[in-house]
């Protein structure tokens, strides 16, 4: 898509590091000349909006639907700010992370957020793309102030002195039209790849289902499982509870450890665990004092299995080989009794049909979808001797290997396409590429402001500002 897009014929120095050289006929203006701050309050009956890092401005009900978060907004919404379609709004404390965008909706946002209304000749959707580039995020970071990074704030008076570009109005429209066209093609590619990953994961689930409910011996004598929908299981297998085969089940009963910049320990959150795997995205550092307070009840160690009892329920992974981990709220870990339970077998069982069905019934009727500690201890597991468990684990790992390779390759293709989208958008909105001829060949389309394939918001994103923001 970038191939064949020419640069402009003439450039000038912008004097702004985040913009670099810009087309010679584009204007350079401080944001105060492009936008005016608006503080329209007393609209308590309007719908709530959220300013997210991944998707810009969305309806809060969509955020509540996509996650298990609860509405933490104040009951009295008289001080909340009205956002009109086309307004630019940003989270003061997360602008440097990309929490900014133009709104497609009318609604209200927290009084701690900032609302800017475009002046004449400013196409909101153009500035939506411009202000969501990594280079603007760095500029927002440069102008943000605070004691620590989690307290940095981009105040309205500093946003107003940042210089931005203003292409001619027809050129702004052409840029938006081209990017919307490009995004539709990229979205189609990503949807197809995610569908493929879904099919591969379904195949993995089928492998787990068979292995943890019937074992590997097709000629094994069977007996009724006692679970009507499951049917028969091998005769020597038993139905056990997690508390019977684990030496410890530890819940994060203490408060979540504080974030401490530069801290040498890592707080594990529910967002770090998905589909049996562990990743550090969404975790944060803490210090020795907080670590010691949390680990009074015992730090997790290699051989344990992490488990989420809320937000969402039932994600699990093997503990990585690290000595610096403690848990945030809604996190737990199992410590299998190694004489009777293999950790990997436990992990696969958690994603097997017996546990998944139990979890569905256990959280049924819960408004936030969470498990109590007693319910976790009562999780049912189909048990067989440890030697057989290890054979089942080895079989699953062999069957998983080509599927995991295909999933990893597909996820990398998605990541590369998302990187390409970011680069393309940045090059186009800052004038490094001239899309006017290409845009002229495209049909007119309805233009929205939200990133169309940003995906669900990160669990670290907030519905409302923290107390420090207020």
Give Rg in angstroms: 26 Å
| CATH level-4 homologous superfamily of the largest domain | DNA methylase specificity domains
- Give the overall average pLDDT: 89
Poorly predicted runs: 454-460, 462-470
Decide which structural class fits the backbone. Answer: alpha+beta
Question: What do you see in this structure?
Answer:
By secondary structure, the protein is of the alpha+beta class. The protein has 2 domains: 11-190 and 413-440, DNA methylase specificity domains (Adenine-n6-DNA-methyltransferase TaqI, Chain A, domain 2, Alpha-Beta Complex); 238-383, Alpha-Beta Complex (Adenine-n6-DNA-methyltransferase TaqI, Chain A, domain 2), CATH 3.90.220.20. Helices cover 35% and strands 20% of the residues. It has 13 helices and 25 strands. The strands form 10 sheets. The chain has a 4-stranded antiparallel sheet. A 4-stranded antiparallel sheet has the order 16-24-21-22. Strands 20-17-23 form a 3-stranded mixed sheet. β5 and β6 (56-59) form a beta hairpin. α6 (169-214) packs antiparallel against α12 (386-429). The longest helix has 46 residues, at 169-214. The chain is elongated, with a radius of gyration of 26 Å. The model is unreliable at 454-460 and 462-470 (pLDDT under 50).
């Amino acid at each position: 898509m970038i191939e064949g897009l020419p640069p402009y014929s003439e450039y000038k120095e912008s004097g702004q590091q985040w913009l670099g050289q810009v087309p010679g006929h584009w204007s350079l203006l401080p944001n105060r000349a492009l936008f005016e701050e608006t503080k329209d309050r007393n609209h308590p009956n309007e719908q709530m909006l959220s300013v997210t890092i991944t998707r810009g401005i969305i309806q809060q009900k969509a955020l509540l639907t996509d996650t298990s978060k609860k509405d933490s907004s104040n009951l009295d919404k008289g001080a909340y700010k009205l956002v009109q379609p086309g307004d630019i709004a940003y989270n003061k404390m997360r602008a440097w992370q990309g929490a900014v965008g133009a709104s497609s909706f009318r609604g209200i946002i927290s009084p701690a957020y900032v609302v800017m209304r475009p002046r004449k000749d400013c196409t909101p959707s153009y500035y939506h793309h411009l202000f969501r580039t990594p280079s603007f995020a760095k500029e927002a970071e440069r102008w943000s102030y605070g004691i620590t990074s989690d307290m940095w704030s981009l105040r309205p008076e500093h946003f107003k002195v940042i210089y931005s570009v203003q292409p001619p109005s027809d050129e702004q429209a052409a840029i938006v039209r081209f990017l919307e066209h490009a995004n539709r093609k990229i979205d189609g590619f990503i949807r197809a790849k995610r569908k493929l990953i879904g099919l591969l994961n379904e195949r993995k689930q089928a492998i787990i289902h068979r292995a943890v409910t019937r074992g590997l011996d097709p000629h094994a004598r069977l007996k009724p499982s006692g679970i009507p929908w499951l049917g028969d299981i091998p005769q020597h297998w038993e139905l056990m509870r997690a508390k019977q085969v684990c030496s410890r089940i530890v819940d994060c009963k203490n408060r979540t450890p504080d974030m401490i910049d530069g801290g040498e320990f890592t707080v594990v959150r529910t967002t770090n665990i998905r589909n049996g795997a562990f990743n550090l995205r969404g975790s944060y550092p803490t210090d020795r004092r907080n670590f010691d307070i949390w680990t009074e009840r015992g730090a997790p160690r290699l051989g344990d299995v992490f488990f989420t009892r809320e937000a969402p329920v039932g994600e699990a992974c093997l503990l990585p080989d690290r000595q610096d981990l403690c848990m945030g709220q809604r996190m737990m870990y199992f410590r299998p009794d190694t004489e009777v339970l293999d950790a990997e077998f436990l992990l696969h069982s958690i994603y097997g049909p017996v546990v998944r069905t139990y979890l569905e019934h256990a959280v049924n009727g819960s408004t936030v979808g969470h498990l109590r500690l007693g319910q976790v201890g009562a999780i049912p597991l189909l048990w067989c001797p440890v030697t057989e468990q290890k054979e089942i684990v080895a079989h699953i790992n062999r069957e998983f290997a080509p599927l995991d390779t295909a999933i990893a390759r597909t996820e990398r293709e998605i990541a590369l396409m998302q990187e390409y989208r970011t680069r393309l958008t940045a090059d186009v909105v800052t004038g490094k590429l001239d899309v006017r001829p290409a845009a002229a060949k495209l049909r007119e389309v309805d233009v929205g402001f939200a990133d169309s394939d940003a995906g669900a918001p990160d669990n670290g994103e907030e519905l409302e500002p923290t107390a420090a923001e207020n």
